Design the sequence.
């Protein structure tokens, strides 16, 4: 498989991982700044980068 096809999937998985770490930080309740950082980064990767990266890659591959 081409790396450009797998790139949105990899970015989505990293985003989900960061969201999971953020929820774990919220559960422990020690550092709220880490929670906000992990959640914001994970949601940005998941919602914006992964969804915008797929059409751009398909545009350049065709």
Sequence:
């Amino acid at each position: 498989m081409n790396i450009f096809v797998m790139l949105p999937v990899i970015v989505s998985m990293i985003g989900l991982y960061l969201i999971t770490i953020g929820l774990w930080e919220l559960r422990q309740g020690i550092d709220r700044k880490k929670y906000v950082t992990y959640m914001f980064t994970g949601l940005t990767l998941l919602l914006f980068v992964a969804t915008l990266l797929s059409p751009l890659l398909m545009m350049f591959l065709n």
